[in-house]
Design a protein that fits this description.
Helices cover 47% and strands 21% of the residues. By secondary structure, it is α/β, with parallel strands linked by helices. This is ATP-binding protein, ABC transporter.
Length: 279
């Protein structure tokens, strides 16, 4: 579970968030919405730990792993596509690199044998034996052709890089998945595949998207950023929209009734004052 407690964020005199306390639970997909400049992407950066809040704190349940969709298309240009996806699970990737380095030794010692045995145990616990096939499944599902899997990222087009970075975020069954505009540059087939992936995903997803149809299909909750506060509602985007419009109409109706009562009271006071003057 991911929680915020009294989180505030200020840039100079500008207050972006003020005393935000909320939680994001497993099994749910939260769509982050708000006006341009409300701080949607910044909120994801606070949740991921990339940006520290001015006050308050963000907490993650012990042992839970957060995966974030990277936005820099050039960050992994020197790496092969397959490796780039594997790097989405830092611990597993490190274990794989350490194993390969030991097995490559020409003077393999008893100490190396004990070390690699421990690494193999950790590798198995992290489902490492399925890693390569999972990478292929994710890349293929997102429309990255098989012949590109062993090419360097620098050889790919911008759209292809975006798909690889998305596969990287999805890789290894993260406990908490943070996605900022994941459908950008995706074709219809890839979007359909991603929707199905997220619908069946068992852990926590927090997503920003301008695609209302996408939010309707994948979200179980909507987190609305408004005037520095974050309010979480149950339901998809359309449900939130209908509910908010109904609440707005009810507020307007209440204000009209209040105004009518005010005018009625003013008229009564005027009549009373007129009668008092005559007497």
């Amino acid at each position: 579970m991911l929680k915020t407690h009294d989180v505030s964020l200020r840039f100079g005199k500008r207050i972006l968030f003020e005393d935000v306390t909320t939680k994001f639970s497993p099994g749910n997909c939260y769509g982050i919405i708000g006006a341009n400049g409300a701080g949607k992407s910044t909120l994801l950066k606070v949740l991921s730990g990339e940006i520290d809040p001015t006050s308050g704190n963000v907490s993650v349940s012990p042992g839970k792993r957060i995966a974030v969709l990277k936005q820099d298309q050039y960050e992994f240009d020197e790496f092969v596509v397959r490796e780039t996806v594997l790097m989405g699970h830092k611990k597993l990737f490190k274990i794989m690199a350490e194993k390969d380095a030991i097995y490559a030794k020409s003077d393999f010692s008893n100490e190396d044998g004990m070390k690699v045995s421990d690494l193999e145990d950790e590798f198995a616990e992290l489902n490492g034996w399925e890693a390569e096939s999972e990478v292929s499944t994710l890349l293929s599902g997102l429309g990255v052709a098989d012949e590109l899997h062993e090419k360097k990222m620098s050889e790919l087009s911008g759209n292809e890089k975006v798909k690889v970075l998305l596969a990287q975020a999805l890789f290894g069954n993260p406990d908490i998945l943070l996605l900022d505009e994941p459908t950008n540059h995706l074709d219809i087939q890839s979007i359909d595949w991603l929707e199905e992936f997220l619908i069946t995903f068992k852990n926590t997803v927090i997503v920003i998207s301008h695609d209302r149809h996408f939010l309707n299909n994948v979200c179980t909750h909507i987190a609305d950023i408004d005037y520095g506060k974050v309010a979480v509602y149950t339901g998809n985007y359309d449900f939130w929209l209908e509910s908010s419009q109904l609440a707005l109409q009810q507020t307007k109706d209440k204000n009209k009734k209040t105004e009518a009562k005010r005018k009625e009271l003013e008229a009564f006071v005027a009549r009373f004052s007129a009668n008092a003057s005559k007497s």
